[in-house]
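worker-3 :: picked Late embryogenesis abundant protein LEA-2 subgroup domain-containing protein
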Amino acid sequence: MAPPPPPAGQAAARPRHSPLIRIIAGVILGLIVLVGLIVLITWLAVQPRKLKYSLEQGSISGYNLTKNDKLTANFHFVLRADNPNRRISLYYDKIDVTVSYEDQVVSVNNVHPFYQRRRNVTHLDLYLVAKDAALYGAVARDLRMEKVSGDLELDVKIRAKIRLKIGVFKIHRKLKVLCGSVTVPFYSSKGFERVYCDVDIDD
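worker-3 :: tokens ->
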């Protein structure tokens, strides 16, 4: 038989919560608040500033574009990496560099890992080689036209796995640097204009 309903005017008894559950919930909430305060205090104390990158030099040598639209060339760039932070240093664990022309990749290389101190500016030599890189569509035609003009417009992309060192803590991040519309002269007499790069850091 079903149990009889409670008398009229008397509400059903509410289940009692265990004191242990209340204690656990309070501890978890307290830990969340504590971690949030630590992150906020650390952020305010460190006052992180944005990393800055620019290409200071760029040149092309050994250029040859065959009748079959295959490119051979040596590219050299000097990347200026500026870490303006007083309390953050960086480990560059893996660095990949890509050179593209009209969205077509012509050369890929990597840079040796290095450590950058706080409030430091480091200059990196980027050497890339295009060896019989096949060009498709109108890309080869446009490249021949730019060769006549004396300048070549390229995109230089840098992807790196980095660790931000803040005191005893190390935070892993992915760094993306895009140096777009880099005008590189075929002849050194024309000179090279500095190019400032866009920077993105994510998890």
